[in-house]
Amino acid sequence: MHGTLSRGRRTEQQSLATSNAPPMATLVTEGNKSIWCWITARPDVSVGHNREWNHLSLDQLLSILEYDIQLPTAEPVHAQSSPPSLEPTLDLSLPPVRPRLYVSESKMWNCLTGHGVDYQKVTKFEWLALVGIASVMEEGILQGDLTRLVSQDKRSLPKRTDALARKGYIVKRPILARGCKTSKLWLKPFAPSVQIQKHPTETITEICNADFPRDAIVGDLEPVPWRHHWSGDTIDYATLGRSIMGVVKEFGVIRYQDLRMKLGVAGHPWQMKVVTRTCRFFIELGLLQYVTASMGNRIFRDCIKFKRDITPDDLAIFISGGVRPSSSETIMSPKAHHKNAQG
Known about the structure:
It contains 14 helices and 9 strands. It has 343 residues and is an alpha+beta fold. A hairpin with a 2-residue loop joins strand 8 and strand 9 (298-306). Residues 1-24 are annotated as: Disordered.
């Protein structure tokens, strides 16, 4: 059994762009030829199916068109008007399209998982999802796109990617894309680094102070300069969470509507919804608290109070989309908190 990794089909525009272009010249050196000979000599590598084209030299392989080119159909003419001498001659010893490279199943497993074939560790459908994630390499893939790529049920795939992340084969991070909360997935070696991993012994507030100038947080309610991390099409959960904690800590107690202004999300419905959910999450973790506070001569019942610094473990739970810790009480919004206090 053989496996192959591919980035998927080219877009229609790319296909049209290459259909009339000659094969791109590739620099062939003695070193490249030696590497090619070493690859094709391996028993776990097949050029085409069943090692059909392993005998081809590198020069021969690169002389073959990479994609099947469909030449435009000319207007029909009389068969007698086409001189036989003008018909192209084909080299029947070479395939019409450049053959793909395949590797054995065991080699695929070793490359993607670090161990041999083991359907006890990785189920069949988890394996198919893992191959799909690996095919996009460093670009990563949204969970919804992976569902379509591997043709799996959208209700079952999240559990499989959760299992792959838990076992350490992939990195799964929450993200907002196309206005919806979803996850982005990478094969672990291709995953971009997360800043918190560089500071395992520091609290998240110390990281905030290092990254974000304090004078941009305190003094006024002007939006923080780094709000672009969550004001566009996607939201960087780690930066948003750290910013919420940094702002609330510097103010001590802040009105919820002032927090939205400071984060630059006022008037942006779905960003405000994310901030609300994040605050509720942090309240469940015991980091923040809804309170009633007096400011000047007025009493406000929609305030948020800082309770404790967020730890790297807290942030890891947050950015991984982990399950909230169990709580005996329901976490309420500021309005619900106000109504409950009145009752």
